[in-house]
Amino acid sequence: MPPDINTAADTGEPSSKFAIQKKRTRLFGLTLDETIRVFFGGNALVAVIVLALITFFLFREGSQFFGQNRDSLRTYRLAGLEYVDIIRQQEEDHTALTRYLFDIRLKAVVQLTEQGIDAAEINRRLAAFDAFSERYSDTIVPIRGLVFELTEVATDIKTRYNENEDYKVARKNFLAAGMKAEADEITIKDLDFAKEIVAITGTVSAYEQINNEYADALKASVTVLPTLPVASLQPRLERFRELTREYLATFPGRLATLKAWDNNAPVKWTEAFTQFIFGTRWLTASFWQDWYGIIPLFVGSLMISCIALFIAVPLGVGAAIYVNQIASPMEQRLIKPAIEFISAIPSVVLGFFGIAVLGQALRALSQWEALSWVPGFPYSERLNALTAGCLLALIAVPTIFTLAEDAINNVPRAFKEASFALGASRMQTIVRIIVPASLSGIVSAVLLGLGRVMGETMVVLLCAGNRIAIPDFTAGFTAFLQPVHTMTGIIAQEMGEVVRGGIHYRALFVVGLVLFFIALLLNFLAQKIVRKYRISIG
């Protein structure tokens, strides 16, 4: 007679074959189901921990940047560099106007050359214009001389201040190490900025006199304009006179700024933050002043990403629709592995391909006479935003294709069958039923593809040209043919050359922090869209 269940339970013996099997599947006191649950739950916990560690590390290394940047801006102001830059900006604006004149001359030479006129005759016809340009360029000489003198004074003040700060750090380290004799040998002479800065601010009267003479010379130089041998360019010369008058109108405000300038004015924390977030210069290892502005890097990343998505979205989504809805089984077996194999190609190999093949091919293509109507064609820069964008499009296509194809595949079959039952054709069903029903999933695929593109490093480092400057968007499409730099590229390029703990080191970590938040935002938006997609389908 079989033992009673309760009796078996009291004696600790298994009451059935199921209980025996359950006891055998225990591992470290856990059943098989519990072990699997712990394993995958542990993986999720590890992912959360890694994400938290990355966030903590980036914040720890990057958080001190804004304090260091504020100190750098304070030194920039105390030593008088800011004062000199106010005058130097006037010189740079004049240089921009002379470049405008040079551009007019270049266009005139091109048009005269196309008419079959030789170089000697072109120079003879442009002699009056060249004399005008030379007189205009020479007007800045007194201002340039003053800037040179003040630059030497301000640089000397900053150098002595930085040396004293280094001596203070060295003395502190010696004392911390118990080396008092070595610490006593270090002589520190604190600077009295109030006295030192007089050598710079005391020149305001001299600047006012030079500036008045400079303004008179500018007015006189544009009173009578030369006649260009190319009539179509004469309006541009008239525009140049208007630009000069606008430039002259800034002189009173600049002088007022110099008179009101105070080197003891406090540098706010917001200045250190806004100078990084909205700064248009990324200039390091400068004898004058280092600037850390992320705008040119962000613009470069955004431009390349836009080019990549402009190419990758039609290709990726179109391939997903074709493979899922139109292609035969044989085509599916051929196309899907071929597209997904692209993601297995190392990005550095794609970068070499861009340097050796694609960049040269696109530049040669721009030389074709049949494509001369394209804005910016022909162009000379082999490595630019377009080359990098085309390669990143190749990288983004597998991501967009795979996720978009999954989204299309998850559309209920009933939708398609109902459309066919109503008499719709295959293309009508795809355009009006399948694609709208899977649109949320397709959008999430595009966002994840954008995240993949924004995080790419090697391709942009090798093929984008690495020029840290905001492209000239007034040139239209030509801006996309100019070299740019990116946030990922600047980190990869400069991290190995910086001093650990320095302001440059911290600035690169803040760039990484910005990238990190962009990636989180894109993934958050993609996941939110996916959840909405699933709810709508459900």
Question: How would you summarize what this structure contains?
Answer:
With 538 residues, this protein is an all-alpha fold. The chain is built from 25 helices and two strands. The chain has two domains: 80-262, no CATH class; 296-537, Orthogonal Bundle (MetI-like fold).
Describe this structure in words.
The chain has helices spanning 5-11, 17-24, 32-62, 65-78, 81-114, 119-125, 127-138, 141-176, 180-184, 193-196, 198-201, 204-221, 234-248, 251-260, 269-277, 295-326, 329-342, 347-366, 385-409, 413-421, 426-437, 439-454, 458-463, 487-494, 503-537; strands spanning 282-283, 291-292. The protein is mainly α and 538 residues long. It has two domains: 80-262, no CATH class; 296-537, MetI-like (MetI-like fold), CATH 1.10.3720.10. It has a two-stranded antiparallel sheet. α3 (32-62) packs across α25 (503-537) and α17 crosses α19.
